[in-house]
Amino acid sequence: MRQEPIRISDCTLPAADGRFELSFREKIELCRIIDKMGVSSISLCPIRQKKIDRLLIKSISSAVKQAEIAVPVVLTDPESVEITWDALKEAEKPVLQVSCPVSSVQMEYLLHMKSKAVLQLVEKTLALCLEKTKNVEFIAQDATRCDPVFLGEIIDTAVRAGVRTVTFCDNAGMMMPEEISDWFKNLYSQYSGLDKVITGFFSSGDLNMSDACAVSAIRSGVREIKAAVYGKNTISLPNIVRILDIKGASIGVQTNIGTEQLRRISAQVKMICHPTGDKSSVIDSQYNHHETDILLSVHDSVETVMHAAESLGYDLGNEDQQKVWNAFCQTAEKKETITLRELEAIIAAEAMQVPPAYHDVRYVINTGNQIGAMAQMKLKFHNQEISGIASGDGAIDAAFNSVEQATGRHFELEDFQIQSVTEGREAMGETIVKLRWEGKLYSGRGISTDIVGAGIMAYINAVNKIVYEEEDA
Description:
- The chain is of the alpha/beta class.
- It has three domains: 270 residues, TIM Barrel; 57 residues; 115 residues, Double Stranded RNA Binding Domain.
- Helices cover 44% and strands 23% of the residues.
- The protein contains 16 helices and 18 strands.
- The strands form five sheets. An eight-stranded parallel barrel has the order 2-3-4-5-6-7-8-9, surrounded by seven helices. It has a three-stranded antiparallel sheet with strand order 13-14-15, with helices on one face. Strands 16-17-18 form a three-stranded antiparallel sheet.
- β7, α8 and β8 form a beta-alpha-beta unit.
- The radius of gyration is 29 Å and the shape is elongated.
């Protein structure tokens, strides 16, 4: 007998939502290890806090390499489609979900709408999603209590729109396995359009029958199951995979998830999901931190790291937040603790890396213990060659003054830091330059065996960020 593949869609994060708190880093790690399990897709929660949730989705999209990433849009907010897609579009396999209550009770209670208005809203939202991607899933919440006539209408709306998947939910969780089997048999016989899409199933576990109902749904023709590795009131992913591993051949289905790998990864997921209280650390922005104060570690959340960046004076956009967070995580895996100074180096290296408006820098510095420092600077602004000559209190000061003379602009130097990257006579020096322009802080980073050269590189790097924002405005 030919065995058809069953898609397993993981919904561990939505199942955990509101039950216990996971840190930003734990959510990413959770999705990363679930991806290794071989699930078809990983469902995330809808965007509620724009800044944090968009960053979370982008970070998970970078971490997950095999599974689809599915994120629901907010049905009643047309802008949600654009916001969600912007966060999700960099995923290897993005999926937009349109979830809608379809029973009369739920439509009245949750949407305050009649069936005709709901149909129009679903049609409009599906059209917006399908403009972004062909991988769109329609989820019929509380479908087992829906009026059959209206259910047929909304199925027809979704199929005609061109969705890939239609998922039916037994949110009440009151149906027995044989009732689910009969329900799906009637569904397939009445609505021929379902043969054009993948049909999915979700059931709550109020009667502890969700796993058995899922098996009945599969036997009736369903080819995608929404299940959680860890969570109550949902289909158990480990149980379903074990059942299909043993009995799948007898009903002509199979999964791509190995039971040994599942056992190991399930244990990891439970370790992450088990409630352990408040894991977040707090940074007091009023505290006078020193360079060597240890502020951050691998256990800190993205909120904590971004708060630390704000306490240093940085106002990072969403894209830069993600870059800084990714670099912080890489550094935190190698070091137990990260200081403010090290965080600043990460921000300078990762945040707002831009095409250089000022480039091809050439300079000559004359200085000594009997004469003042003098710097001659030549560089290009786009394709125009510019130059400047200036003196200063030391080589660095003269170099910075000559840059200002060449560019014809004065920048407020907020801070200048030097530290050694390597050891020995040929040690590499790293410099961080912080410039303030129109109330905003910009940082640049330079590395060279010539500390003056490293300072010039860092200064030009920061200036380029200022120019980029001005030209992009």
